[in-house]
Amino acid sequence: MQAGARTGLVTGVKQNLPLVILVGIYWAVALLEPWELLGAASEAAYYLQGTVWLAFVLIHGSRRYGWDKLLILLGITVLVSWAIETASIAVGFPFGGYHYTELLGARAGSVPWAVLAAYAVAGYLAWTMGTVFLGNLGSGIEGRNLVLVPAIASLIMVMWDLCMDPIKSTIEGAWVWEGGGAHHGVPISNYFGWYLTMFIIYQLFALYLYRVSANERVVQTRTYWILVPVMFLGLALEFLFHPFVQTAHLEIYWSSFVLCILTMVLASVFNIIRVNRMDDRHFAGHR
């Protein structure tokens, strides 16, 4: 049994080697982030991390949905997130009143392209984890999953923002909450706004899949599905290491550390367990 499992794992890694390598690179760079690299090294790490993240999503997503449906998901995410972010910057709804500083670079109007890209690639991870939790491993969507997948995936995205927002805004100053807020300078409305935004995005994509795509079986290994929560854990690494290497703002770093364990880490671990407990008929080979 153990020998068979090891053989299946090796097979799964070989069949998904580009994805495994990308996850490894992302983790390696993410482990450096809490130490705050300076100058050119920091910029290189930033762009490498973003490139690896995007490459992972493109390879993984195209294998499941094909390029057409994957690009629809990414397109919906960018357009809706841009529209809602722009509205909130202008009128304060739904996130609250805020504006971006110059730290995140070039913008589409008042929203940095980096923010829109983060919505798209993190959004894919959360969507995929949501489908895994509900056992929907096909190329479409049906039944109650039409609403449940968007509901769960949106919650997973909020988990990330709960850990990230106080650090990126209050400490690093990538954006400024004009009226402050109860969660280390972040208004609680921000998290409800995130949930609403992502639910709209995911619901639109779910309705699109429901109309145009039969929920056909996607024959992939267990490793293919497990790599998504492992990549999501990579997003969590900085929050887990910050309080051990920083000397200022420790109340925020420790708060994000605890939230990260109770949200991002647990969600990822449970997602991996969910895949491992599924029947072999869902997968190509054992792993």
Describe this structure in words.
With 287 residues, the chain is mainly α. It has one domain. The chain is 72% helix and 3% strand. It has helices at 2-15, 17-32, 39-91, 113-133, 145-171, 189-212, 222-245, 250-277; strands at residues 98-100, 107-108, 111-112, 175-177. The strands form two sheets. Strands 1-4 form a two-stranded antiparallel sheet. A two-stranded antiparallel sheet has the order 2-3. Helix 2 (17-32) packs across helix 3 (39-91), helix 2 (17-32) packs parallel to helix 7 and helix 5 (145-171) runs antiparallel to helix 6. The longest helix has 53 residues, at 39-91.
Produce the secondary structure layout.
Layout: H1 2-15, H2 17-32, H3 39-91, E1 98-100, E2 107-108, E3 111-112, H4 113-133, H5 145-171, E4 175-177, H6 189-212, H7 222-245, H8 250-277
